[in-house]
Amino acid sequence: MSSSVEEFRSGFRAWLRANLTGEFAGLRGRGGPGREHEAFAERLAWERHMAAAGWTCVGWPEEYGGRGATLEQQVACHEEYALADAPARVGHLGEQLLGPTLMAFGTPEQRERFLPRIVAVDELWCQGYSEPDAGSDLANVRTRAELDHEAGEWVVTGQKVWTSLAHESDWCFVVARTEPGSTRHHGLSYLLVPLDQPGVEIRPITQLTGTSEFNEVFFDGARTAAGNIVGAPGEGWQVAMATLGFERGVSTLGQQVGFRRELESLIELARRNGAARDPLIRDRIARAWTGLEIIRCNALRMLDGVAAGAPGPEASIGKIFWATWHRDLGELAMDVRGADGMTAVGAPYDLDDWQRLFLFSRADTIYAGSNEIQRNIIAERVLGLPKEVRP
């Protein structure tokens, strides 16, 4: 790496060391998968502390409040954050998804209105894509929006589901059908909708972990200003797909650091409780270690494509591989734990980290594009195989 990357890395590392102290010291490791409920207000305060020091949105251009960090510097930032065991971020959907979308497709007025508040973590965002009949098949969206010309507002009616952190969010970027009679990818628009208003109901979904990261969101005549449409009416599919393209980026290598920490902790547990004496367990641990190296190599290959401006199939390949690997790690953790893993640590449903990992990682192969959908993408769009027969 260049010296500038190392300087950037060491600067952020030093800042984390100096600031994950005092009131923030207890946040280390808080808020990970299945633990999104932990210390949310304190993590929000931490992230605003980061913003005040200029450590949010580091990859954004300086004109939009970022640092203009290179791809390599952004990777270094994510890796150091994970290595410091810093708390899970709360504003990542605004920073990593909506912000880049507005830079690419938004109007100057939209950028001026929303980007500074994302940088400062003053407004939190959620993603209104999936519906009961439009999950992996996103083009089947039925939520509709009509323009009330007299009021100058879009009126939104419909239901979204699996909406991460909607109960903590201020705004939602919503894919809605704005052309009556349109089907599939046509006639969709990308709207920015405030959640704190009449006509919006948010219902948490209780997960296997007993927590509620996901939600159902019901829109019943909810309103948003006519100018809160990103891109032209009817061109929402293009904007929505661009947003998904931003979803798998530089944070991938930071994710690998977290995975490695989990694997190393599991190895320590296997040595401590004697499970490592089982040759089958040892073999599975070796396979897990090898798999993690493959995940990292694929992530580096993906970032090479992003840097060259021509991202390839590595994102879909990587999603299948890491999701399956992490699910398998959860199963391995339960086998290492043995019978003790079947008992909750407290009443009524207090889980330890390994139980939570096992239960939450069941969703890894489903959310953000299921394994089946990713395989179809690779087969049809990358390998050019015949499309799957559909009714």
Beta-strand content: 5-15%
Distance between the termini: 51 Å
Q: Find the count of extended strands (DSSP E, 2+ residues).
A: 8
Strand order of the largest sheet: 1-4-5-8
The profile of the biggest β sheet is: 4 strands, mixed
Helix content: 40-55%
Number of helices: 11
Structural class: alpha+beta
Rg measurement, Å: 22 Å
User: In sequence order, what are the helices and strands, one letter per element?
Assistant: HHHHHEEEEEEEEHHHHHH
Global geometry: globular
Low-confidence stretches: none
Q: Mean pLDDT, nearest integer?
A: 89
What does this structure look like?
There is one protein chain. The chain is of the alpha+beta class. Helices cover 45% and strands 13% of the residues. It has 11 helices and 8 strands. It has helices at residues 3-19, 40-52, 71-83, 92-105, 108-119, 236-247, 251-273, 279-307, 314-337, 353-360, 371-382; strands spanning 125-128, 144-148, 153-160, 171-177, 188-194, 200-204, 215-225, 229-230. The protein has a 4-stranded mixed β-sheet with strand order 1-4-5-8. A 4-stranded antiparallel β-sheet has the order 2-3-7-6, with no helix packed on it. A hairpin with a 4-residue loop joins strand 2 (144-148) and strand 3 (153-160). Helix 8 (279-307) runs antiparallel to helix 9 (314-337) and helix 9 (314-337) packs antiparallel against helix 11. The chain is globular and about 70 Å long.
